[in-house]
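Figure S4 source data
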Amino acid sequence: MPGNKPDFSTFLLSLASSVMVHLGRVPDPGGEPTETNLDLARHSIDLLAMLEEKTRGNLSPEEGQLMSRVLHDTRIAWLEEKKLRTS
């Protein structure tokens, strides 16, 4: 979006959305059918975890809370989906 300055929260939510697309929990933004891909979802979660580590101490309280919530929610969603696939 021209003219809109990206911010950290939007970036985190973008990565979280990517996880949910790879888990088949939300439709692909392009309208393509979604296939569950646990490996790609895990990769995005690992990116979020790396960001948490690298930004520790440099986030506003709101950004830190969002980071924690996004990581928790995506990890739980991944575990639930993995359990469904291995049951």
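Figure S5 source data
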Amino acid sequence: WFVSTPNPAYAKGDDTSASSRPDSFDLVDAGDGWKVLDSYACPLMHGHAELDGVHAFGCADGLALLKVDSAGSWKAERLAYPDERVSSAITASSDIMVGNYGKSGSPFTAFLRIDPSASSAKPGDVFDIPDGQQVCQFALAGDGRTLAHLAGDGKLRLYEVAPTWKEVARFDAVAPFDCAFGAPTPTPRLALSGTSAYVTDPVAGTIHEFYLATRKQGLDYNVGGAPSTIAGGPSGG
């Protein structure tokens, strides 16, 4: 198991400005009395994804990558960010990872393409969102080449992730909404299933469908009420 360890300054309660985010995590053997096998530094840890046995964690000083080496032991590597921004939410599919990207303490307005096999992230891996929109919700298609992004302006944008970043479609999905954590109003949600993206519309009582392959709008499902949270399934290209 990977188990996060608390920031000592926050845990003690002496420093009211200390972050509640963990500053490291332990590799723990649950079959041996939860024995700690190793520890890894990861200041302000937030965000995790797994791809082909490689675990990525978002840290203030880079991405921590954990994988098993040829000897069967866990090995830690650090993937440096290409600039002063950081990532705090990561998703993975096919052979690629994507994280949100921005300055800590400010709205994140970019995405970071993450190649777990690379030695470092490059400036070309960064994609600044058109119109300066904040990263609200995003999901990566099963082919690892299409990213769906629902922003606070109510638009659903589809991006081609590789070989280069490019916006390939844009839809007026829902009315503009507050995407801040803990917003008092019902928040639309995004999920992928099969070859479609689905967006809940709490105001209209509808779920909207968008086709990833043809990049066209699909059906509207009138479900009544205020649909918000939605779960997807395996997604295709």
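Residues 8-12 form the longest helix (5 residues). The two ends are 32 Å apart (CA to CA).
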